From TrEMBL:
This is RING-CH-type domain-containing protein. Residues 400-410 have a biased composition (Polar residues). SUPFAM superfamilies: RING/U-box (SSF57850), SMAD/FHA domain (SSF49879). Residues 296-340 form the FHA domain. GO terms for molecular function: zinc ion binding. Residues 411-420 have a biased composition (Basic residues). Gene3D superfamilies: 2.60.200.20, Zinc/RING finger domain, C3HC4 (zinc finger) (3.30.40.10). Residues 170-246 form the RING-CH-type domain. It comes from Paramecium tetraurelia. Keywords: Metal-binding, Zinc, Zinc-finger. It holds the Pfam family FHA.
Amino acid sequence: MNNYIYQIKKQKEQMTTTLPFISKNKNYVEMKAVTWQKDSHGLFDYETKSLSVKKHRVEGSCKVCREDNEIVIQEGKNKDEAHMALTSIQAQGDQYFIQPNQSSTENDNYLIVRSLKNADGVQKGYTLQEGDLLKLGRVEYHVIEIRDAKGQIRSVKDVFQSEAKLAPPLEGGVAKQCKICLLEEETPEDPFITPCKCNGSCAYVHFNCLKHWLDSRGYKKESGNTISYRWKKLECEVCQELLPQQIRFKGKVLDLASLERPNQPYIILENTQISEKDKKAQRGIYLIKGTAEDQVKLGRGHQCEIRISDISVSRLHAFIKYEKGNFVIVDNNSKFGTLVRLSTPYLICMDKIAIQVGRTVLTFVMKSFSSLNGNTHAGLAALHNGEQGRIMFQTGFQAGSNKTSSINNNQKKHDKHTGQ
Ligand SMILES: [Zn+2]
Ligand SMILES: [Zn+2]
């Protein structure tokens, strides 16, 4: 009899150790961390086998840190300054969010496009939004403008606009003179601007003169439904200052780059790269028209409409397609991946998603504790009401013992799964 009571007591103790985490949160997050053992420009090689892999189970808010090739979880408020957090996980009620690291660009969090899959396991792609920052290998593209099917244009000009100073009057009655056409008149339509660091009589240039000069430095190429504009050497020839793309004048934004916008849905991508040869900035603007038939190819190869000459970019790296009124990017199993920078918290769902932080890939999936239980229905009922659940456990020894053993069995099953 004593032995029997002892058994009940022991079982109840076991229950109290498992119960609190059930009533606290009915879901948890399974996180798989894969780190490339090589450190190369913050890239992750999706084809390598030289990896460190570890699985973690997350049951509350925490920070995810990397020490050499090891990923460690820091729970609660125990902040260790020696660890630089790759990302954070925030628990809110029954939901978990990826809280992207904003403090260092080295640890920017990027959504991995190929991890977004539909129920059949097929890549569904990522729907592009204005303001998105894409990364193909180590080459970045900004989505600066989208015209949707209704004809509405959404753009993120303020992000990329470097506002040139309007020319102040010269002292001592000296007339301003345009450094390109050498004329002294200016009009409200064609004002003098000072777009760079040159000063004195060299400071001034007509807006239109600068625009024509830039046009002569750029070239336009049309291929399929993509129009590419590229400018080489965007710096002022005298002071080497990078020239702006847009000028704000009397509340109006004037484009220095001449773009022909079609009367149909389109998306505009921009990229600024520093050429490895001469260290000069090159700007590319790519306008893709939304037509359902064609998809635009991005990559290093000749067949691509958007060609990227960088060794970290695969020959056929990604596609952009126009689907149900949206522009969607799909990764083509590229070596270094197609990524979208996360700037706001991202909800972790029952469908797997993955982010890349430098040379580490973190895969997240939310799981329910109730699915650990053999009797899902009873488990859910208990979980929906913590109080009720506890009463149920306490009143019937039989029910309690079943519950405990089934949780333990499932945890064992789960642990086994984790080890694989
Ligand atoms: Zn001029
Ligand atoms: Zn200058």
